[in-house]
Specification:
The chain is α/β, with parallel strands linked by helices and 296 residues long. It contains 11 helices and 10 strands.
Length: 296
């Protein structure tokens, strides 16, 4: 297949540099990124810790580096939105993160909601549906998107869940590597399946080494495992089931994947996520250079 030509902007997850937000922004600018994605769950970027003045200062600083925000990460971990006892607090926190994003110049917040159960009549499915309906309405009312990251379930199953929400405020952050590494789903087919919902993507690559239960990666309500990004990173680096690898060295068909994004007229960001490795800055620079080769 002839390599597709893309016009998408290239982003970097600031936290992938592991040097704090301010220095990470400088490094993102240095590697040639157009924009950044920033975790806004705890610490210095938690909405609860940011005064109106601080928000303006961050926005100004990011713009001074020639960057924009592609999205915020609003992933609250645990069991996503599967636990009814926690959902009220998580829904309100998610709304505050969406509001912060709008103040900083992005209308996209990415997240994990938990594995969508196969049984639509299950209590967990209903709990997730109710939470996502509320978040979808809130996002739509604010011209924003609460974007679920792909990986825990097949694209066809995720589409069926999204189709049932009624509005598209809850949408998709497409991560092709997660599909390759965990469910074994085809990212190219996934783009076409989810074409009406994709508002942001992660540029990541990986290989599948063996079968793994998605619950052992992403957790599940009533299952002993909870979503933990540090644990997932460790699994991606040293586990027996999958590996995260540099862009172009894994199971993602980049020609086919980027062509599919072109075919559905996706104009959003390709945001690099690097969760493993001892030299993230070098790895991210290689990823930026890899994507820029598709710009023709």
């Amino acid at each position: 297949m002839t390599a597709p030509i893309i016009t998408n902007k290239i982003g970097v997850i600031v936290d992938s540099f592991h040097v704090g937000v301010k220095e990470g922004l400088v490094k993102a600018s240095k590697v040639g990124a157009d924009g950044v994605q920033i975790y806004a769950v705890k610490g210095e970027m938690d909405p609860a810790n940011l005064s109106p003045a601080a928000r303006k200062e961050w926005k100004s600083y990011i713009e001074s580096l020639g960057l924009e925000i592609s999205a915020l990460v609003g992933d609250l971990g645990g069991h996503g939105f599967q636990d009814p006892a926690q959902n009220r607090e998580k829904i309100e926190k998610s709304k505050r993160i969406m509001e912060l994003g709008l103040e900083l110049g992005t209308n996209i917040v990415t997240t994990h909601i938990g594995i969508v159960p196969a049984d639509r009549n299950s209590r967990v499915y209903e709990t997730m549906h109710v939470a996502c309906e509320e978040l979808s309405r809130f996002a739509s009312d604010n011209n924003a998107f609460f974007a679920i990251e792909t990986g825990p379930e097949t694209s066809a199953h995720l589409k069926a869940f999204l189709d049932g929400l009624g509005t598209k405020g809850v949408s998709v952050n497409f991560d092709p590597a997660n599909m390759v590494m965990v469910t074994g789903d085809d990212p190219v087919e996934g783009v076409y399946n989810l074409k009406d919902y994709i508002v942001h993507t992660h540029a990541k690559d990986g290989i599948k080494l063996g079968h793994i239960d998605p619950r052992d990666v992403y957790g599940d309500y009533g299952y002993e495992v909870e979503l933990d990004h540090e644990k997932i990173a460790q699994m991606a680096e040293t586990g027996s089931a999958f590996r995260e690898v540099p862009l172009g060295e894994g199971g993602v068909d980049w020609n086919g994947y980027l062509k599919a994004l072109n075919d559905i007229d996706y104009k959003g960001y390709l945001t690099i996520e690097r969760e493993v490795g001892t030299n993230p800055e070098a790895d991210i620079q290689l990823a930026v250079d890899f994507l820029k080769k598709f710009r023709g």
